[in-house]
Every structure is written in structure tokens, then in C-alpha cells.
Amino acid sequence: MRNILILLSFMFILLSCSKEEKEDLPKDPIILPPYNPTYVDLNDRLPSYLPRMDIPADNKTTIEGIELGRALFYEPLLSGDGTQSCGSCHNQSYGFTDNGKKFSTGIDQVEGNRNSMQIINAGLRTSFFWDGRAATLEDQAFGPVTNPIEMHEKWPRAVAKINDISTYREMGYKAFGVVQLDSVLISKAIAQFERSIISGNSKYDRWKKGEYQMTPQEDYGRKLFNKDRDEIRDSLGNVIQVIPGADCFHCHGDLSDFTDNLFHNNGMDEIFTDPGREKVTGNAYDRGKFKVPTLRNIEHTAPYMHDGRFKTLDEVIDHYSDGLVHSATIDPLMKNVDIGGVRLSLSEKAALKAFLLTLSDPDFLDNPDYSEPPPL
Amino acid sequence: MNMNTVSKITAILMLVTSLALTSCSKEEEMGCWPPLDVPGDSANVIMIFNATTNGQPLELLKNFKDPLGRTMQVELLKFYVSNVFVSFNGASTLLKKAALVILVDPNVTDTTKKHNEIALKIPYGNYDRITFSVGLDVVQNAGDPTKYPSAHPLSINQNTYWDAWGKYKFFMIEGKGDWDGDGTLTNIYGYHTGFDECYRSISFEKMLTLDATNSNETLNVNFEVNDVFFGKDTLDMKLHPSWHGDINTIETAFIISDNFQEGLRLN
After folding, report:
1. Domain finish residue from A180, A199, A218
2. Which of A253, A286, A332 sits opposite B175 (nearest CB)?
């Protein structure tokens, strides 16, 4: 009897500490197992040559947290009409982008104005969304549920729907030691799952590990990727030789992560309809700057750029080769803007594309750990 | 495998382990931001790097004139300072292994930290010289950025690593200019020096007496941005608007490295 009273008291304290205090108590009680989560170091799952993840001290990764997050990631009850989940616009087969769509459509059939970002090695990112408005994955995961042009739900309603399901309460207890989830814990669980989505077994990765030999074309593309376009001039300043280079590495070269995690204006527009990073910082010098996405699995994440304007990789390569335009905030790394770009030949473009295709990771795209789990 | 062989292997393993442990300094474990611990009483000395454009403090995207009368701006300026020593009669004390000095970087939004300052702890005593280097020495330059925590100056998060060459960038300056005088800043420049050949050391005579009555000092290291391009050697920025690691044109990086070395002044 004494033990039961202690357990009841403990449950009362837990319930009284919940963020959504006005929620109804669960309808069907669950039997609490011991709270004993299995901690996991996601950095152990990363290839050694990738940077390390900074895991937040208040959201250590656990097997149970990832499992809960995965279920919630694919849970349409988080949306206002129960039709959309995170996974609706972030399809694993498309590198967790929106099924080849330029823009995503929310539950009210309202279309957004930015292309759905991929979720690939998200634990290595230092900011989220095209304009970097979220500093952490937890912050990022918190936003779409209430965004009126996305899932358009109110958190208390979403939380109530989740807590009405005893399996979620049980999973929540295993993951966080509480019997009622709240919006913060739901976001934390989704963030844990997103952090676990790791790509590290592409042809490129196997080449890094010495397990794959690139074709001559792929290897030439790799060299172009990591090379500036240079001009050799005579004493009068006349160009006597052009050394081809695609200049990709400045923004996409860091440690096989294929992004510098920064914001750049990459010469797409003279006048901006979307202010990009400026919307977050308020600084005019950030106008038209957008976050550099990783190029991993780029074969599957079309269309490209923040507004999905390029349907194919060929169009992207053409842009950097010949389509750059000047603007006040263009990045100094776009140093060939005066001649439209790096001016690649057809064979150089083909080689660069061949290299980019080595970043595709079929194991990632088919990994059952990242797919929609069976219904609860 | 007999016991004798096992004993030999065990002894070798223990030796290797102990060598590995002793070669990992406390500073390497903690990162290089805190000043090196020094024995005994010490003074707190701040080394501040200041850049000017024609005598005015350098500001992000603020127009200034180069010696040819052309308008230009700086959008990024950061560099590594390493192996900071003070010495007296030739006997040196290491104060800092590596720090990243950031003078202009629109991506750095943390204003709580002074990115142009290096905090040093110097043991009480008399000194007649301070020495430091721009860039990273051979060992640091060959380091693996994945081994450092994200706030460490050598971490990949500092965006100073060339993955393609497995080396760090030592000195980075980027911006725009109006080379043709049409009133628009449509010309772009960007120089990222690096490779061991661009490592430069600087030494200044500096009398320092540090004791309980004088335990806080500030050392200002100043330079004029124009001197980076128009110093001992002149860089034709129109002809050579960038350098990003092409060994065939490393002369451009040498000009930047030498000019910056020559242009630093200790006040």
C-alpha cells in the first residue's frame, strides 16, 4: 500500500509539472515500466572524416527518444485536420524533401514560398531553414505544427491528441520518464529522430574509405569541384590560358559534409522578392542570402535552390557556369560573376555532374530505420 | 604466443599509451580559448588586433579608398595567430598555441565575445620581447578538425579548413571594389592564404614589467588594410582578384602574407 501511494504521488508530481497543465488526464492508464533509457552516441554512426555533432545537453539521444521521434515525425495527428505529418513534406525517398515539388502545400491548400529542405546529417547543421531562423533542431521541429501554411494546428490540441494514445504515453515515458508528453518533449523527440538520419555510405564515402575507385569522369568532376577557375595572363593582362574549375568547394567543401553551414548570395537574382537571411537578422547586407544545403543525395532532392527554380542538376550547373548575376550582396566567393560564372565546357559539366551523383546513398534512401513505422 | 611475447607487447602498448597521454596537453583537451595555465602568479594581458582603413577603424561594408583612389569594401577579415611567446634575454614562455582573430565576418552574430582579442596569462616578471605567428605551424596545420570541439579555433565550425588539401586557411580577406571607377562596387576580391609556406612569424621589442602592482596590460597590434595589398609588394587586385589554394599561383598568397607580416605594428 505504501509503495502504491509513493508511486501515485510521483505520478501526481509528474502530471502537475506538464507544460500543458490544462490537458485532460489520459483516458486509459498505462503500467509504468522502469525508466531506463538507452543512451546512444550518434557520432559513432558518422564516418570518421565527417565533423562531429553537438548534441544538446538537455536532449541527449536515446534509442527510445529516436523511436518516439520517428513515430511522431510520421504522425498526421500533429496537423490541424489529421492529414499531414512532417514526413508528408519530407519524403525519405527524396532525401527527405517534398516529392519533387517546388513548394509544399499545407493542410489548408496554401502553398509556401520556399522549397522543402532536405534532412540529411541534420545533426551537423548549425542553423535551420533556408534563412537560419531556428538555431537548433529542437527549435526547428517546434515550428511547422503551428505554422498556418503548414500543419496549422495549435500545440495544446496536438499534445492532447498524442496523449490520448496510450502507446505514445508509454513511449514518452520510456524516452523522457514522463507519462504525459508536451510540445517541448514532442519537439525534442522529433529532433532526436532527425539527428539519427545519417547519410555516410555513398560512392563518395566508399571512395573516402578506399572501397571504391571513382571512374575517370567522376574523379575529374571531383577535381573540378575542388578547384577555382583560374586565368593565366601575360604581362599585358591578356588571358593566355584558362585553368578550368567549378569553384564549388568554397561553400560546399567542408569535410565531406558538403556545406559550410553559412549563408551566401549565390548570384541568382539582381532584385530579391525573398529577402532570405535579412528577414532574420534585419541587416541589409544579408539580403538575398540563403543557407547552403548539403549536396549529399542531391540526385534525389530536386528541385533546387530556396525557391526550387531549377528542376534538374543540369540547370544548377548551368547557373554556376553561365548564369550568375550581380547584386549588391553577391558573395565575394562568386568571383566569376563578371563573366557569368565558371564557364565550364560540356565535358566539364558532365564530369561535375558525374561526381555529384557519387553523393547518392541508396542505403540512406532505403534505410528502414528512417521510414514510416507501422501504425501504433 | 608465449608469455614472453605477451609481456613485450604489453610493455610496448603501455609505453605507447603513456607517450600518447603525455603528448596530449591539458590545453588540447580543453580547447585553446582559455589562456595557457602558467605556474605561480601571473598577469592578465589582452592582445587586441585593430584594423584601419586610411586611419579609420575598419567596418563591415564601409567604403574606403585604396592608394590608387579606388573605392573598396571588406566583407570578411579573419586570421590565425599562433605560438604567442614572451621572452627575456632570449628565454621564452609560450602563452598561446592558436587563436582565431575575427575582425569582420557577417556570419558571426555572437557579440558577447570580442573576436579581435586574445587573452593571455603571463607570469610575473620582466620581458623584452613578444613573438607570435600568423597562420598555424606545420603540426597544427596538419591537424584533424574533427578532433576539436565546435568552439575550438581549429574546429571545422570556424570555416577555416580546406578539405580538399587537408590544410587550414591562415588569412582570409574578401570584399568588393570599384576597379573601373564607374561608381559601382562590382569587382570582387577574395584571398585565402594557407599552406605551410605562408606561415609568418612576427617579433616586437616590448618591455613589460608584470607584478602585483601591474597585473593587467593591453597590447594593441594594429594594421592598415591597404598595406595588405599595397605593402612591401603590390598586389594587382584587378589582375589577380583571388587566391584560394592554387599552388601554381601561390605568389599571390606570398604577397598577402608578406605584406601583412610587414604591416603589423605593436602600440
Report:
1. A199
2. A332
Question: B225: which 3 cell numbers?
Answer: 588594410
Q: pLDDT per residue over A155-170, tens digit each?
A: 999 999 999 999 999 9
A335:B245 CB<8 A: no
Residue B142, classed as helix, strand or coil, is coil
Give yes or no: residues A79 and A193 share one domain.
Answer: yes
Residues of B with CB under 8 A from a CB of A: 60-61, 75-76, 106-107, 109, 145-146, 150, 156-157, 159, 161-164, 174-176, 185-190, 239, 241-242, 244-246, 248-249
Per the domain annotation, does A48 fall within a domain?
yes
Domain total of chain A: 2
Q: How many CA atoms lie within 13 A of B155 on its CB side?
A: 18
**Within a domain: A65:** yes
Q: Print the domain residue range for A147.
A: 10-199
Q: Please name which of B108, B238, B264, B253 lies closest in space to residue B173, comparing C-alpha atoms.
A: B253
Residue B242 to residue A226, Cβ atoms within 8 A: no
> Percent of chain A scored above 70 by pLDDT?
91
Instruction: Give the one of A49, A54, A230 whose C-beta lies nearest to B246's C-beta.
Output: A230
Q: Specify the 3-state DSSP secondary structure of A3.
A: helix
Residues A212 and A193 placed together within one structural domain of the fold: no
B117-134 burial, b at 16+ Cβ within 10 Å, e below that, comes to: ebebbbeebebebbbbbb
* CB contacts, 8 Å: B150 with chain A: 52, 54
Could you tell me if B188 and A334 are in contact, meaning their C-beta atoms sit under 8 angstroms apart?
yes
| Cα–Cα distance measured from residue A220 to residue A226, given in angstroms and rounded to the nearest whole number | 10
CA distance A244 to A241: 10
CATH of the domain at A103: 1.10.760.10
Residue from A226, A277, A294 whose CB has the most chain B CBs within 10 Å, to mutate: A226
The closest of A201, A190, A194 to A297, measured between CA atoms, is: A201
Q: Is the pLDDT of residue B179 over 60?
A: yes
